[in-house]
Design brief:
This protein is α/β, with parallel strands linked by helices. It is built from four helices and ten strands.
């Protein structure tokens, strides 16, 4: 099972459009995970239309329309791997322990907000992934997103892609 993991698209405010490379990944993915700060309901509509399966949450920059359609926290089991998705996890210091306590039933936590790519494992075994942003790099050198695979009940082949 192929996953596309994105966050913080901010379309059309900070990012005018989603890059074509990301749309190609949407077309190839079995599941698209978006960790919030969509900004535009039109982007949610388009991802719902083009994705085979979409898991998304709202972020701090998402208005009432998106908040009415998306949860603050989403959970899903994909191929035997338990995922949780949230936009914001707080400061980087202590993140692994804090998130492991908040999401004890998850194997993988996908989050956004900082626009800073993140891939760590908490002592509990929880894998934390932040794909950065494909449209608003802030202080990062490149725009980014992630792909991953779920194989034989495990997360595999996590790749950070630069645009």
């Amino acid at each position: 099972m192929r996953l596309l993991i994105i966050s913080d698209t901010h379309v059309p405010v900070r990012g005018r459009v989603v890059p074509e490379q990301v749309w190609r990944e949407v077309d190839e993915a079995d599941v698209v995970v978006h960790a919030g700060d969509w900004v535009s309901e039109a982007l949610l509509d388009e991802l719902e239309r083009r994705s085979r399966s979409l898991i998304g949450v709202y972020g701090n920059n998402d208005g009432p329309g998106l908040r009415a359609r998306l949860p603050e926290v989403a959970t899903a089991e994909l191929g035997g791997v338990r995922f949780a998705v949230i936009h914001e996890t707080g400061q980087a210091a202590g993140r692994e322990a804090r998130c492991a306590a908040l999401f004890p039933d998850a194997d993988v936590l996908v989050f956004g907000h900082s626009h800073i790519p993140w891939d760590t494992v908490a002592p509990s075994g929880l894998r934390l992934l932040n794909p950065g942003s494909p449209t608003d790099r802030r202080r990062q050198p490149k725009h980014t997103y992630m792909t991953a695979e779920v194989r034989d009940g495990a997360l595999a082949a996590v790749v950070l892609h630069e645009l």
